[in-house]
């Protein structure tokens, strides 16, 4: 997959130049005050973890100098939180499992990477209020090669076919894949694009995806298709439909969570969350090509 630069005309893309990418190291904070929000203010930076392979929430583009930058509606929200605090935004990019590990170890101040709430995750991390619903944008579904997809008319037929599925490691999609087959028949991939490349090559029979993030990649994989929602919705009860921000466990994070919830509420009410998402969808379609 190649990322190309279009004229970055969307207002929210100015956010690309307002943060510093960090590849390793801690959050820059030594002994804390017992209040993470105060520590962030002293440090002058908010460090977030994200997996930039999940358009339109987080993904790479090239800036006007040909350098890789991270864009997306999640990044716009993270920037709004940093702006509310009055600090710079630092981004630590890893695969999704790395984001989870960094949140659990408090190596980042928060993780924003298409997270959804589960009871299992709530045992090891805290969450913000919900800010984006997959059910209004797409659904939890399946991608297959077109000739393979034509063989099936229902999920029941897929479950009986003993197929090999792919899913992003540590994701809700991995849990949903386990409803279709035995865990031994599921291959984990660090990033969505790597999984789709494996599907395109025939290494797996299907990939479990959030369709709103997978759809922009169809340009790069014209041999693949998303199976229709009417017959292949893996989360019809919408248990995994709302995105949240993840925070390390601890009382010291409560003031930061409260501030994040305030920013989420304000930007829901003023329409910015919807605007950021629309801009990110358009940018991701322009940015990804074969």
UniProtKB/TrEMBL annotation:
This is Amino acid ABC transporter substrate-binding protein, PAAT family (TC 3.A.1.3.-). Pfam families: SBP_bac_3. Residues 1-23 form the signal peptide. Keywords: Signal. InterPro entries: Solute-binding_3/MltF_N. Residues 45-280 form the Solute-binding protein family 3/N-terminal domain.
């Amino acid at each position: 997959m190649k990322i190309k630069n279009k004229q970055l005309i969307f207002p929210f893309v100015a956010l690309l130049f307002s943060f510093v990418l960090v590849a390793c190291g801690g959050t820059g904070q030594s002994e804390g005050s017992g209040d993470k929000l105060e520590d962030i203010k002293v440090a002058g930076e908010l460090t977030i973890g994200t997996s930039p392979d999940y358009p339109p929430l987080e993904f790479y583009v090239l800036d006007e100098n040909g350098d890789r930058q991270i864009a997306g509606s999640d990044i716009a929200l993270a920037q709004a939180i940093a702006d509310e605090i009055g600090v710079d935004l630092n981004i630590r990019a890893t695969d999704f499992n790395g984001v989870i590990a960094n949140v659990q170890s408090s190596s980042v101040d928060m993780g924003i990477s298409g997270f959804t709430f589960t009871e299992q995750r709530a045992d090891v991390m805290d969450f913000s209020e919900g800010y984006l619903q997959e059910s209004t944008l797409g659904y939890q579904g399946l991608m297959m090669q077109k000739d393979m997809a034509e063989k099936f008319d229902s999920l029941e037929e897929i479950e009986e076919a003993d197929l090999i599925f792919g899913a992003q490691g540590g994701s809700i999609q991995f849990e949903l894949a386990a409803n279709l087959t035995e865990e031994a028949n599921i291959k984990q991939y660090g990033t969505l694009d790597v999984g789709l490349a494996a599907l395109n090559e025939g290494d797996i029979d299907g990939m479990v995806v959030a369709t709103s993030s997978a759809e922009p990649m169809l340009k790069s994989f014209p041999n693949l298709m998303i199976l229709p929602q009417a017959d292949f919705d893996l989360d019809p009860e919408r248990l995994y439909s709302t995105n949240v921000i993840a925070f390390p466990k601890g009382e010291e994070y409560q003031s930061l969570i409260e501030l994040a919830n305030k920013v989420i509420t304000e930007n829901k009410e003023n329409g910015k969350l919807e605007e950021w998402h629309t801009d990110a969808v358009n940018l991701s379609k322009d940015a990804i090509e074969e």
